[in-house]
Write a structure and sequence with these properties.
Blueprint lengths: L16 E7 L5 H10 L3 E4 L6 H9 L7 E5 L11 H10 L3 E8 L2 H11 L11 H18 L2 E4 L5 H13 L8 E8 L10 E4 L20 H8 L2 H23 L4 E8 L5 H14 L4 E6 L13
């Protein structure tokens, strides 16, 4: 009887992007981690360096479920933190793709931030904040030299830092573009509660009053031909799409990672659906991560009041 060999799960080391965030206390590590988390990274705060290789192996065994991870390692780890340089070297020896982000700031900026937060420096809990900052700089000098990217946050607001991190790590990997949800709906069922932008298209001619179009939705070619065959709809789409093309990059610039666009007509079956489909395709063509949902289209297909 032949016994089949049980093979261990392979490690897809090249399929895992690892970012280790470190740097001076008060320089913005939390904001940097939150920025990456918003962009789809699996984030772990204050992981002891001795666990880095094991954590990376678990990511590699996840069959693509965890392909991007960011880990914050700092002096809160106490004596464990001293082994970070060694742990980074072990990760590279094991074949993992790794980048180190070091966050820095001037002494004056860090002192001001500590005074504003009324927190004590971890290396000087009962003494001067400046003494703790200087001691920390000395301990982190080797890591600062080792870092792939250094960001001086002295003159950056929290939002500016988040945007800079997203631009640095996400856009280069095609991850930094904003996700957009386009939702068609019927006003008689209420507007989407989470919509950031709402457009009312009830001014357009209603396909509901065309007998052969009544049972269809705006996803059907006949309904779309009717809606967009109207010169007013054509002019509206030209202006509305131009507006979206103008404002969406500015939302991205401000650090917004998800936008919900609601497009409504009376019942959410014809006009809003057709417009949402056209808007969704327009944004996909411009490399936005787009999902189109027709919330109310199926509610009205058996007849009823005007759509």
């Amino acid at each position: 009887m032949e016994i089949e060999e049980v093979k261990p799960v392979g490690l897809d080391k090249k399929g895992v992007e690892l970012i280790v965030i470190t740097g001076l206390s008060g320089a913005g590590r939390t904001q940097a981690m939150q920025s990456l988390e918003d962009q789809g990274f699996f984030c772990v705060d204050n992981l002891p360096p001795s666990f880095l290789v094991k954590f990376a192996e678990l990511c590699a065994q996840s069959r693509g479920k965890v392909s991007k991870a960011a880990i914050v390692c700092d002096l809160r780890g106490g004596e464990f933190f001293e082994s970070l340089s060694e742990a980074l070297g072990n990760l590279e020896k094991e074949g993992f793709h790794l980048e180190v982000l070091f966050l820095d700031a001037s002494d004056e900026t860090l002192i001001r931030r500590y005074k504003e937060s009324r927190r004590r420096h971890p290396l000087s809990p009962h003494g001067r904040v400046l003494d703790g900052i200087q001691a920390e700089r000395q301990q982190l000098e080797e890591l600062r030299i080792r870092a792939d990217n250094i960001i001086d946050t002295s003159n950056l607001s929290s939002q500016e830092l988040r945007c800079k991190v997203a631009e640095l790590f996400c856009k280069a990997q095609g991850l930094g573009q904003m996700a957009v949800s386009v939702i068609s709906f019927g006003f008689k069922y209420g507007s989407p509660m989470d919509a950031d932008l709402v457009m009312d298209v009830r001014f357009l001619p209603n396909p509901f009053y065309i007998q052969e179009l009544r049972p269809l939705t705006g996803e059907h070619a006949l309904v779309q031909d009717y809606v967009f065959g109207n010169p007013m709809a054509q002019e509206f789409m030209e202006k509305y799409l131009a507006l979206l093309e103008f404002i969406l990059p500015n939302y991205v610039q401000e650090g917004k990672n998800h936008l919900v666009i609601g497009i409504g007509c009376t019942g959410g079956q014809h006009r809003s659906v057709a417009i949402a489909e056209r808007v969704g395709q327009f944004l996909k063509d411009r490399n936005y991560d787009v999902k189109v949902k027709h919330r109310d289209a199926a509610k009205n297909q058996k007849g009823g009041t005007a759509r």
